[in-house]
Write a structure and sequence with these properties.
Layout lengths: L2 H20 L4 H4 L10 H24 L4 E2 L15 H21 L8 E4 L3 E4 H25 L6
Parallel strand pairs: 1-2
Antiparallel strand pairs: 2-3
């Protein structure tokens, strides 16, 4: 199995993992913040949605331009204003991710060697950018897991 296929499988699996973590969380609990600076579960899913579109644009730029400069994508909690249910947000994320995977699947192996200049990472390959998406997803999966566990009452 090629490294590319492993990356594509990992990308495709993430929405299911998000859904599995959130399957027992009701929408009210999913919007609860543990403190003023924390993100809720809904914030994390909205962030994943926001950056998925940015990741798609970024990947397409690397294919269309010679060594484009890619600014760091800053989290923007002020944009987490959507009111749909967690299930609807996860479904939309899954749909966007499916588009990302379809796009990546359509690209021949040589294209994955194209390069860009990332604001914080410096010169990077397309392949590395895809790995960065997976790393980003992993960080937020851990965050979702921790937040969802904090909603479970502690027996005393």
């Amino acid at each position: 199995m090629s490294k590319r296929i492993v990356l594509l499988q990992a990308l495709a699996a993430i929405p299911g993992e998000v859904a599995a973590i959130l399957q027992t969380v009701d929408d009210e609990a999913g919007r609860r913040h543990t403190d003023a600076d924390s993100w809720s579960l809904a914030d994390v899913v909205q962030h994943l949605l926001l950056v998925e579109g940015q990741f798609q644009q970024r990947l397409q730029r690397v294919m269309a331009e010679e060594r484009p400069f890619l600014p760091y994508i800053h989290p923007s909690p002020s944009e987490h204003t959507r009111t749909e249910s967690l299930a609807d947000l996860v479904a939309e994320f899954a749909q966007l991710r499916e588009q990302t995977v379809a796009y990546l699947t359509s690209l021949k192996g040589k294209k994955w060697e194209r390069t860009a200049v990332h604001e914080t990472e410096g010169p990077v390959t397309f392949h590395f950018l895809v790995q960065m998406i997976i790393d980003h997803d992993s960080d937020h999966l851990s965050q979702l897991q921790t937040l969802s566990q904090s909603l479970i009452p502690n027996p005393q």
